[in-house]
Write a structure and sequence with these properties.
The protein is mainly alpha-helical. The protein has 2 domains: 62 residues, Arc Repressor Mutant, subunit A (Orthogonal Bundle), CATH 1.10.10.10; 166 residues, Up-down Bundle (Four Helix Bundle (Hemerythrin (Met), subunit A)), CATH 1.20.120.530. It has 10 helices and 5 strands, in the order αβααββαααααβααβ. The strands form 2 sheets. The protein has a 3-stranded antiparallel beta sheet. A hairpin with a 5-residue loop joins β2 and β3. The protein starts with a helix and ends in a 6-residue tail after the last strand.
């Protein structure tokens, strides 16, 4: 429980990544727990990548944000057969509908403004496949941030971050110039559906979006990570 409490504070921003948590004695007094409880909680947090320790002057325990590979390794821990980037893409695609529907129920005016601003940036990047792809992924990441279901949103972001962390270069598909405006229109409609709070409209928008998300088998292991190339027209 203590590990989850501290992790939630770091993920939610109440404890900024990089900030000093203090010494073990500081934390023991703050949370009013026994040393054994604190040590086990810190072990769990260090394993998850949310706490690091430093020695020497100014040392102590510090909050940290685990990278995508570490979070993904924790996600698939216990699966004997591991996983591949292709597996990751299939699961992420399957989650896009539930994520968008949750966002349509949970969105605020501030969320809608952010989503519309990202789509506007996508519109300025239609001749730059790499930037368009990254803005595209940022849009889906922001949609997942809107989810009230934090498990769903966090899982989706972990899968998306894993793909982005592996990106070395973008090789645009031949049809990208001819389809990018349609792709942009599909994402504008997705945002408009979420803004309207309409579940039926959001479902239609997701069905249209899937026409641009063709998942190919990719057998590259998730762990250890290796750089891969992406095709912008197929990256949804």
């Amino acid at each position: 429980m203590l590990a989850d409490q501290i992790e939630s504070a770091i993920v939610g921003g109440a404890i900024p990544a990089g900030s000093r948590l203090g010494t073990k004695e500081d934390l023991r007094r703050q949370y009013d727990v026994a040393y054994g409880t604190l040590n086990e909680a810190l072990r769990i947090l260090q394993q998850r990548g949310y706490v690091t320790s430093r020695t020497g002057p100014g040392g102590g325990l510090f909050a940290s944000a685990p990278n995508a590979s570490l979070r993904l390794s924790q996600l698939i821990l216990g699966f004997h057969e591991g996983g591949t980037l292709g597996d990751c893409a299939v699961v992420r695609q399957a989650l896009e509908g539930p994520v968008a529907l949750d966002a349509a129920r949970s969105r605020t005016p501030a969320d809608v403004r952010d989503l519309e601003a990202i789509v506007d940036r996508m519109a300025t990047a239609t001749e730059d496949p790499r930037r368009y792809l990254l803005e595209n992924w940022q849009l889906h990441r922001r949609i997942s941030d809107v989810c009230r279901n934090r498990v769903l949103g966090s899982l989706y972001r972990t899968l998306l971050d894993a793909n982005e962390s592996e990106l070395r270069d973008v090789s645009p598909a031949p049809q990208f110039p001819a389809t990018v405006q349609h792709n942009l229109a599909v994402h504008r409609e997705l945002v408009a559906a979420i803004a309207a709070g309409s579940e039926e409209r959001t479902r239609r928008a997701i069905r249209a979006h899937r026409s641009f998300t063709r998942v190919r088998p990719v057998d590259r292991p998730l762990i250890p990570p290796r750089p891969v190339r992406a095709r912008a027209a197929n990256a949804g």
